[in-house]
Design goal:
single chain, about 190 residues, SH3 type barrels, OB fold (Dihydrolipoamide Acetyltransferase, E2P), 5-stranded antiparallel beta sheet, flat
């Protein structure tokens, strides 16, 4: 089945130049008086390398069928990130490169979607929001209470992000995993 470059979406898999690629992101560009094109970031299934590709808006690529399964994150060690299939309790250990930004949000027993192409795990997608514990957060400065004043907090996964002044160490907060932004207290 063919797909037009304009219709590419994150998470799709396509065949190009004899290799299978996972689409990591796309941007549609229309420069001034020139023809529109799609700037796509692909990760090669064969080499694991990410690369940018410039495609004409009407370029056709062969799509590859993918399956998405829900797995629970179990733990992380020096061999990688281990997930468990909640249906049959099968274990799957993935290399850190496959997780990209997802590793910033993983907490024990979190259910994630793993993308498989031809039986091989190629990427992990966390839920849209995650509840994480603040482990480091400087105190707000007295008198510094203007609207929307933010400070940097470190979360249990090592991720650092902007949070409101009233957030203290030990609190649980909800984080938007797509934009890496504070959403509110949990």
């Amino acid at each position: 089945m063919a797909v037009i470059a304009n219709d590419l979406k994150k998470g799709m898999a396509v065949k190009k130049d004899g290799d299978i690629f996972v689409v990591l992101g796309t941007v549609h560009r229309t420069p001034g008086n020139k023809r529109a094109f799609v700037q796509a970031t692909f990760r090669s299934l064969r080499s694991g390398q990410s690369s940018d590709h410039r495609l004409a808006s009407d370029d056709r690529l062969e799509s590859v069928s993918v399956s998405r399964d829900k797995w629970e994150f179990s733990y992380h060690d020096n061999t990688g990130y281990t997930f468990i299939n909640p249906e049959n309790y099968e274990n799957l250990t993935l290399a850190p490169e496959l997780l990209e930004d997802a590793k910033d949000f993983l907490s024990e027993n979190m259910v994630c979607e793993i993308l498989f192409i031809e039986g091989k795990a190629v990427s992990v997608e966390p839920p849209a929001s995650a509840i994480l514990k603040v482990i480091e957060s400087p105190e707000g400065v007295r008198g510094d209470s203007a609207n929307n004043v933010m400070k940097v907090a470190k979360l249990e996964t090592g991720l650092q992000l902007q949070v409101p002044l009233f957030i203290k160490e030990g609190e649980l907060i909800r984080v938007d995993t797509r934009e890496k932004k504070y959403m509110g207290r949990a």
